[in-house]
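Task: fold both queries, return tokens.
Query 1:
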Amino acid sequence: MIERYSLQPSNFNPETPKELVILSIIAQSFFQPFSLEDNLLVILTALTAGSGIGFNRAMLFLNDGMKLKAATWLGPRSPEEAEAIWTMLSSPGIGYAEIVAYNRDLVTKMVRDIQPRLKSLVYDLESRTLPLPAMAAVNKEIILVTEAQNEPAVDPNFINFIKVDSFLCLPLVAQDEILGEIVVDKGITHAPIEAKDIELARLCALLAGNYIYTTNLYKKVVEMEKMAALGEMAAFVSHQLRNPIVAIGGFTTQMLSSPCQPERCRRNLNIIQEQVKHLEDIIYKLSHFLKNTIRELKPVDARPILLNLVERPDIKLKAAKKTISLKIPENLPLIQCDQVYFEEAVVNLLDNALDVTPDGGKVYLRARPYNDKYVMIIIKDSGPGLDEKSRDKLFSPFYTTKENGTGLGLLFVKRIIDTCNGKLEVQSKPGRGTMFKLYFKIQERG
């Protein structure tokens, strides 16, 4: 007997144990294309949802430089609103997405009333004496406050905002770095905050702190990659443009500095013209690569495009002393892509294959259904092949094995495949040629 279950729970069951509810809600956030703010709202949802831990309201503080600032408030404003929320959460068929959407809407509705007051809750993390709730973040410890009205360590402005006598402060920390804080209370039910509540809330705080940390770390990595790419682009442009510009400047100086014989002047002008064309080609390829966008995926009949490619004058010229072995079935399914960009991608690979294939060698161009979801297109050369190091760098910006290559062609191909929701595989070994396999999703006819 085989039983199957969905990876993501479909319903929010109020009778499920609290621990499982919390883990379920938070775990499902990783399947959603949410922003950092939305995913933190997911954790606040886990803390305050009807059958979750049992807190009624939650406030999120985030570290902004040297300040700890209140960012979000989630929870009902009255017992009546709380009853409406809990009734909704307990309704049959209510799932994770509905809960998050409801709470997001709730936060949006409260912005006008609460946001101005929320902005006043700002604490200087460099201050020697910080009141609660900021003290919990600085000390990196969970603090339960009871009888808050009689506690001098609590900020009166904060008490005036939440209007409860008991609350729990949960610092958000990762790698010993203060990232923020969550403050929760049971201001609607007025139930006591128990030890089990604190243990479950601790789990949410740990996940929230690590989530903020990894998100910030990812942003730093992306920025580092951007800067590295800009550095590579600057080096590439400098290298590619230097020789043509030096040549143009040198031959122009010769013509201007002394009388020039007609034949010599003609030769110099021809060289200058060739270098200008080379510069134009570099600029075109660079700008074309940067402007590569596919606005809408459409059904593309790949068969006639592939058949016509081998008849292009530029391809026939390169293949003059080589053989292109073509095999494409008549009933090839339509694929999802863009006709112009699809052709450019295949031409790029076919052009590369012809460049590395020696005279008398063969280039293979194949297309066939791979399965009921994908069409596979193969371009294989008879060239020298690639070692593992070169294969790993194949799609790096500006990496090229050609003397006058830009190092953008294969990256351009990969961007097209990715944009068309396809897949790309490369197989190559020294002395055995290189084979590219392109997988495009099938588009049903009609």
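Query 1 returned. Query 2:
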Amino acid sequence: MTVTLEDIERAAGVLAGVAQHTPVDHATHLSDAFGAPVLLKLENLQRTGSFKLRGAYHRLSRLSEAERARGVVAASAGNHAQGVAFAAAQLGIEATIFMPLGAPVPKLLATQGYGATVVTDGATVEECLELALAHAKSTGAAMIHPFDHDDVIAGQGTVGLEILEDVPNVRTIVVPVGGGGLIAGIAVAAKQRAAREGRTVEVVGVQAEATAAFPPSLAAGEVTTVERGATIADGIAVVRPGDRTFPLVRDHVDRVVTVDEDSLAKAVLTVLERSKLVVEPAGAAAVAAIMGELIEPAGPTVAVLSGGNIDPLLMQRIIAQGLVASGRYMTMRIPLPDRPGQLAQVSLLLADAGANVIEVLHTRHDLGLTVTDVVLQVSVETRGPRHQQHVLDMLRAGGFEPEVADAP
């Protein structure tokens, strides 16, 4: 079996009235910098907060009555968990979800809120998948894989149908990639629908650089497992492409690029500030690729915002990281002689440089200080990298030796 345009069109009929046809928003700020129209496909506004509902509901809807009676089981860090839990509740099916220890609390609580039984065990999603498979074997529950099933891929592919309906002249679709279910479905839908209409559409995938399994897999021509790296984009941190998704991505996706952590943080911050949208780091990966000039401005470009489920505490950290990465926040350590007037002199120089002081720590207890020295740690708001350099130059011209500290 393989997924076809007809499968995805049938899935769209099943999902009508369940999954929302999410809007497409024109991003003027990105378009101006990119040099071509950029539109955002707002799957972060989907029910349950991500595209995952589409594939989960379509998969569950095709279970037999006997399978439904035995219940379903899934493993997920959050978005797939919520999609399965919601779909199961809609269809009257009992659901058990394995979530890793340390899963984001809002995602865990939301999954429970949809009525699923949540089991927190295992350090990673891969370990949870093993636990879910063991549960399925012992109970007879149907295993609902997060991406590696034709029915799931077809459900996710309905995003591609909506993009072509709302942006008929789309030239490029940029999609966050984890295990490949979303981009496989979108690529099949977009490529086959466009071919039917006598035109072409480019589909580009984006992975987090820290855990990117598709580039080496595509280079090797076979599914390859990579080491899991630390990334804020937990929703796409998948160490191995799916056996079902890999050939579809290989045959229908034009290329897969990677973005680093600073790029992801800047993208989350940009979408929040300029488009007034809350997007999780994985969901902002496509925007990160556009901002990082990894996409050619060949025409109207749609970036899929795949999810908006983010822990507020993580959001706080990401905003701070995004500000630092954008050159809009800087913390400096400034050694000073311990005599009156030094703090006032630094303050005057910062004011003359146009830097807004956010926080100040004045201490005599830093390691390595003599009894005649103090250290001033000051955090300032700046307008970008050039302004930061101007601030540092002003301080040095005033006789001080500022050292830029690591990001908070």
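Both queries returned. Flag for query 2: The longest strand covers residues 329-337.
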